[in-house]
Fold each of these.
Amino acid sequence: MASLNLLSTQGCHLCSLAIKLLNDSGTTFSIIDIVFDDQLVKHYGDKIPVLIAEDAEQALFWPFDIQQIEQYKEHYGIS
């Protein structure tokens, strides 16, 4: 089963909102701080927070809501 990651960084107020939303939805996820990976900064630095399933071809970009999170999880077979 794929895991779910939230691309984030310290001090990102939108990331804090996304974390709260994910927690409220009961979603299990890991937080990846993009500051430690130059490629993530290059691709997502101006787009965080970004929700992405492991090995996914498509990410879920902010803003997203609980319904979109659930649809994304269903698409990638995440319970």
Amino acid sequence: MFEHSLSLAVADAIATATLEKGQSEGFQPLTVAVLDDGGRLKVLKRGDGASVLRPEIAMGKAFGALTLGMGGRELARRSQKMPGFMNALSDLAGGLAVPVPGGVLVRSAEGRILGAVGVTGDVSENDELCAVHAIEAAGLKADTGDPA
């Protein structure tokens, strides 16, 4: 079945599974944002004990991935190689793009971008692990910016 958009039910399931994965792994309290393919917030969940700016960071990780259509790992690599471009991107996006791991594109089975998940609270690699787990548990493809 071809998915045309990320439903609220699926976005909520991804957010819940992300937090549950973090808890089961013993990670620091996580916050997760799920955006649709237009960069609009579908679901935001802030785990108990998560610090104050975590919602903005989670949204920035997801928005950064959507902005250039690539996962946070590739954005981080490009940020190292092209800091001027990434600074300009941040300025153009009103400071909303956070180019680090933990921003994961959500793709359909056919590869279409349906949205993005941003996770923050632990180290970026653990944030990303939780997002990937949840996206795949929802039957969708996770795109971290690294080859599969």
Amino acid sequence: MSDHTETIVETTNALTAGAAKTTVLGGGTAAAAKFFGFDPITFIGLVIGVGGLVVSILSFLINWYYKRKEDIRASEIHELEKLKLMGDCNAEQD
């Protein structure tokens, strides 16, 4: 895996962790505000919760895309290695 891809995967993992914490924080704030009857805080909590959810979804999609590319590259390398080994085996039999 290239350095660029590793950096992207690490970044998306960090974003996912942050997004999950933000979603929990927003949901907790909204629930507490609703319990205590603070309407503006309820709105802010809901916005934070929805924002965290959106970031989580985007992070998931980015991570899925780069993992898919990594799998394709690994499959291509595997096929090339198989061809190389088959070529070496055929050369030894002659």
Amino acid sequence: MRMRVFLTGLIAAATMLVAPPLSAAAPAPAMSGLTDAIAGRLALADAVAASKWASGAAIDDPAREQVVLDTVSQLALDRDLDPGYVRGVFRDQIEASKTVQRRLFAQWRLPGQTAPPATPDLGPVRAAINELNVAIVDELAASRDIVTTLRCPPELTVSTAQTAADAGFDPLHVAALVQAGASVCTVSTGSS
């Protein structure tokens, strides 16, 4: 299963490098609502990193992560989704965000580099993240007929590539977007 997810990520990255952007007349990819919500959440990782840098807070925040996982589990139940599945998807969201934060911290430690100005108050950013968490769970519910089929990996790849292009993501954020989608598709081929 992990090998397939890894290959899906590689395909997504390769697709972004070689595929021309979809024309404005082309229909949106099937999972674009989901990948757009995931990308929106991931884009906030920069603000989270800057705030944590300003306050001296650690990147890892197990208490906050638990609140997020508990909240999305309840959202999953409310939408008749498997809470374990949704928690897995959100573990990937959290880890992808921390990937971006760690890379930014490393960059800001380099000679001549500085972090952008930020407030140590994460309240407004967390409120935006919470809204996107709801949107992601809603999109998972809307995609329930795709995520368990063999259609999911290619649909997710196309949607991820289009979302990354539309967002103008740099290589760090593209890689994190692929990481954030690692558990979306639940289809299994029976071997890894």
